Amino acid sequence: MMRFAIIGAAVGLTGALLGIGSAAAPDTLPVVTRNAVTLGEPAPNFQLPDSKDHLMTLSDLHGKVVLLNFWATWCGPCRVEMPAMEQLYRMFSRKDFEILAVSIDAQGVAVTRPFQREYHLTFPILHDPDYRVGLMYGARSVPMTFLVDRQGVVRHQIFGARDWGASDAQQLVQMLMKY
């Protein structure tokens, strides 16, 4: 029992010396928070390089439905989802629909280009190696997808992989094209 009292006193003294538990801690660093998009609000604009180092800007796609997907080559569910995304991409006209697949791979084109070739992906792959845009959107995991309507408003947020070749996914995109 005496041992616990000594340990408790030592912890309390250490805490007091370090300022732990005190009411004011002026030298405390602020916590970094993630932003998050709100459904029904405008999608935050961004500009990222594609595989050919051309900058793409979300606002340039105003008037199209955009499927914005955050992913990585090392992500198993992302690998499963990509062929169905390609199927969806080929189903709709470029004047009405676009996919922006935002890779968070730190190695950039060195890993995404072989991946794009292996899976025969024709939609744009953008690079966000420092996860700046992912954090701006509040994407806490990959894959995470946002559907943006023709007016640039976020209408849907999908956590995890989805079968984009399924009829319900196709209907979701078609519904957004009506507005």
Short description:
With 179 residues, the chain is α/β, with parallel strands linked by helices.
What's the SSE blueprint?
Layout: H1 2-18, E1 47-49, E2 55-57, E3 65-71, H2 76-91, E4 97-103, H3 109-118, E5 125-127, H4 132-137, E6 144-148, E7 154-159, H5 167-177
Parallel strand pairs: 3-4, 4-5
Antiparallel strand pairs: 1-2, 3-6, 6-7
Account of the protein in words:
- Helices cover 34% and strands 19% of the residues.
- It has 5 helices and 7 strands.
- Strands 5-4-3-6-7 form a 5-stranded mixed β-sheet. Strands 1-2 form a two-stranded antiparallel sheet.
- The chain is of the alpha/beta class.
- The model is unreliable at 1-32 (pLDDT under 50).
- It has a single domain, classed as Glutaredoxin.
- What is the CATH superfamily label? Glutaredoxin
Give the topology string: H per helix, E per strand. Answer: HEEEHEHEHEEH
Q: Poorly predicted ranges (pLDDT <50, ≥5 residues)?
A: 1-32
Average pLDDT value? Answer: 86
Q: For the record, what CATH class applies?
A: Alpha Beta
Tally of discrete structural domains: 1
Structural features:
5 helices; 19% strand; two-stranded antiparallel ribbon; 179 residues; five-stranded mixed sheet; alpha/beta
